[in-house]
Design a protein that fits this description.
Layout: E1 8-12, H1 17-28, E2 33-37, E3 51-54, H2 60-69, E4 72-77, H3 84-89, H4 91-112, E5 116-122, H5 147-165, E6 169-175, E7 177-179, H6 197-205, E8 212-215, E9 227-228, E10 230-232, H7 233-248, E11 254-258, E12 264-265, H8 266-277, E13 283-286, E14 295-296, H9 301-306, H10 316-331
Parallel strand pairs: 1-2, 1-4, 2-3, 4-5, 5-6, 6-11, 7-10, 8-13, 9-14
Antiparallel strand pairs: 9-12
Helix pairs in contact: 1-7, 2-4, 4-5, 6-8, 6-10, 8-10
Length: 340
């Protein structure tokens, strides 16, 4: 557990999908924390632990007061817009929230002497790898193809520049495809009109949507559909605690991929949903979407060498089952924070 002399933790976006799972793990091990969320997509009930403050990470007066009042020594920054197609349609929305608000947050952290910063980034910073058959290593040249990826990359660059100019150290975590829900059934992916494949497939399986659209069946992959590295949200959450422990122990600033190091095709995901649910879902095949790489898989040697992190849910059927269980919970009238 973190030494309490290190101060408390500020979790921005802690009422959202990934942030709430991190808050749960932090709370279960007794960490002191403050959750800051504007509830634009998050749910207040999903923040199971900590002091909750409703507000925006770009509000420097609010953030500065929180950092001072609660003696914050670590910031975990999740608050962001994350929908790729929307970022193409509304780029300034993404640069405003993801980049400009992060810049404001970082200034507050520097002024307050925050020691550790853990940043929620994305594999979208890689763009379309030159050789999609090979896992993406952290040293791969970044070339995002949409404003979402660029907005996150700009935040990474600010953090790295600030590392050279201040005493604040950071861990940047580049997420691959996050999926699944809390195995305890208290929190999960509750975003309306979600676009994540496994979430959507689970909704189709349970009748909340009519069909699943598959975009592209002619990729140079074994079955023609895109391949992605899917990581269970609870494993991703535990990686943040490992990153926290690494920094508190004196670790240097670093950047690591978060994935399992192997991929599943869209058809393999659909087969898993059919297998776990027991009934085939309706699938509509559509042409490719512009900018989707054939495959995107994480190289994971660095995260295992750098952080004390061991995944517990590296199983596609387990990921799918927790997603289906959460959708059933929501359909029965359950809400975040309620036991399933």
């Amino acid at each position: 557990m973190q030494d309490q002399k290190q101060g408390a933790i500020l979790v921005t976006g802690g009422a959202g999908y990934i942030g709430s799972h991190v808050v749960k793990l932090l709370g279960e091990r007794g960490e002191q924390m403050v959750v800051l969320d504007n509830l634009s997509t998050g749910n207040r009930e999903a923040a199971l632990y900590g002091e909750f403050v409703e507000g925006n990470t770009g509000d420097q007066t609010l953030v500065s007061n929180i950092l001072k009042r609660y003696n914050i020594s670590t910031v975990m920054h999740f608050a962001a817009h994350t929908i790729v197609p929307e970022s193409v349609e509304k780029p300034l929305k993404y640069y405003g929230n993801n980049t400009a608000c992060t810049r404001n947050l970082l200034e507050c952290c520097e002024d307050a002497g925050v020691e550790n910063f853990i940043f929620s980034s994305t594999a979208a910073t890689y763009g379309i790898p030159g050789d999609a058959s090979k896992p993406c290593v952290e040293t791969l040249q970044t070339a995002p193809i949409n404003p979402y990826g660029t907005s996150k990359l700009m935040s990474e660059m600010m953090l790295q520049d600030l590392d050279a100019a201040s005493n604040m150290r950071h861990v940047i975590l580049r997420y691959f495809n996050v999926a699944g829900s809390d195995p305890d059934g208290r929190i999960g992916q509750s975003t309306k009109n979600a676009t994540l494949l496994i979430k959507v497939a689970a909704e189709v399986a349970l009748g909340k949507r009519e069909q699943l659209y598959v975009y592209g069946t002619d990729y140079p992959t074994p079955d023609g559909t895109g391949i992605r590295d899917y990581i269970h949200v609870s494993d991703l959450a535990s990686a943040h605690l490992s990153a926290l422990d690494y920094l508190v122990a004196g670790g240097e600033s670093t950047l690591v991929n978060c994935g399992y190091g192997r991929g599943y095709s869209v058809r393999e995901v659909i087969d898993a949903v059919n297998r776990v649910h027991g009934t085939p879902i309706k699938v509509i095949e559509e042409p490719r979407r512009a900018g989707d790489p054939p495959a995107l898989i994480a190289a994971v040697d660095k995260i295992h060498k750098t952080l004390d992190w061991t995944p517990q849910y590296d199983d596609l059927d387990v990921i799918v089952k927790t997603s289906l269980d959460w959708e059933r919970h929501l359909m029965s009238g359950g809400k975040p924070g309620m036991a399933a």
